[in-house]
Design brief:
Order of helices and strands: EHEHHHEEHHEHEHEHEHHHH
Radius of gyration: 17 Å
Helix content: 40-55%
Strand order of the largest sheet: 3-4-2-5-1-6-7-8
Structural class: alpha/beta
Largest sheet: 8 strands, mixed
Strand content: 15-25%
Mean pLDDT: 90
Length: 260
Amino acid sequence: MKVIAIANQKGGVGKTTTAINVGTALAATGSRVLLIDLDPQGNASTGLGIGRNDRHTSSYDLLAGEGTLADAAMPTQVPRLDIVPATVDLSGAEIELIDFEARTHRLDRTVQRSEEQWDVVLIDCPPSLGLLTINAMVAAHALLVPLQCEFFALEGLSQLLSTVERIRSRFNPGLSILGVVLTMFDRRNRLTDQVSDDVRAVLGKVVFDTVIPRNVRLSEAPSHGLPALIYDHRCSGSQAYIALARELILRLPNVAKAAA
């Protein structure tokens, strides 16, 4: 079971859209996928059609030690894609976790105790580098970083990478960078190309070849409670996420084996 945290401390970079659509694409290959919604906003849960009144056991309960992954996981409309939803309770978890024993390892303990009924676990992190994101990084084998093609992208990325190094040195030496995916790419904007070139010059092959374009259908899909790959699989955004999933599988050989 491969655990991938999808993180960037900056909001609005496409973390949740990436989590939903990569999860859907992986499930379409035959992999059993679990998405853990660790963002208090609960957008991943809403985007997969899970109503707020239907979220009985949530990611907050996992952090509080009051449930297992199997207890909290719910099926979605996507075959082989389950979700652990988020509720408003998660908004207070940062403060509550301070008083917990091993507060940075709460999620990791839950994941380690699971019976591995999934091939891939994706964790949708909040837009911060607080205890929720740290819990995700401690539990993860790898980090997937959506990076918006804008002026301050590299500045925020350097802060995130510094946090990753601290997590490696103190809590999780096995944490790797699976890759950086450029999002909200707009070829009509010269700055977009410049940012893309700069990121690739600095990070090289860590950056996925696939870029995710700005696409109206990607924005519309969550309001229908559907991944874009189901809402409109022909749109440029959906096709980009399918291509990204192919690249991701190549970087995770065990996932390719499971899907086969």
